[in-house]
Structure formats: C-alpha cells, structure tokens
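Data card: per-record layout.
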Amino acid sequence: QVQLVESGGGLVQPGGSLTLSCAASGGRFSIAALGWHRQAPGKQREPVASLSNTGITNYVDSVKGRFTISGDDAKNTLYLQMNSLKLEDTAVYYCYTTLYGVVYWGKGILVTVSS
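The structure for this 115-residue chain is written out next.
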C-alpha cells in the first residue's frame, strides 16, 4: 500500500525559508512521477511543482526561482525547498505520486507565512 507522509511545515516570516519532505513507502518510486500541490484558505488546490521519473521539473509561475523540487531515490523521499516565502504561499501543501496510472496523496502539511 502506497503511503506518503509530509513533514517540515510550520510558521515562517516573509522572506524566510522552509523545506518540506515527503516520505514515500509501498512502491517503486524511481519510476514514478511526483510533485506538490497546495491549497490556500478559501481557494482551490493548485499544482506547485512536479518531478518526472526522468528528472524533469516543472513549477507554477508564482514559485519559479523561489522553490526547488528534488528527490532522493535511496531514501524514497521528495523535497520542496521554499525560499523567499511570501504571505500568499500560506497553504496546506500536499505531496502526490502517480504510479502505474494511480494518483496517491499525502494528508497535507500546513505552511503559514506571517509576520
């Protein structure tokens, strides 16, 4: 059974940094696509960043140059390094993986950017 568990969220001031982690288990993630979505209060969930099984990354325009997605196959862990955080980055962040055509989601972790 595929499980994804996010960690690393919390409260940070504008301009600060956080690194989210997503520990995956129950699958062969070296062949999977992975990524992060987020859902801000009162808004729909939106894609943030993705990482293909060939190492190709994509980012939503609002985070380009500030966020970096990466993965560690040996640890089965996905990361999202977030720098220069803004108030509008406040959201619940969800990691996901697409494995054999099935999408699996973590439960999400809250990131709050506030002064």
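Known properties of this structure: The mean pLDDT is 94. The CA atoms of residues 92 and 109 lie 5 Å apart.

See the next section for split statistics.
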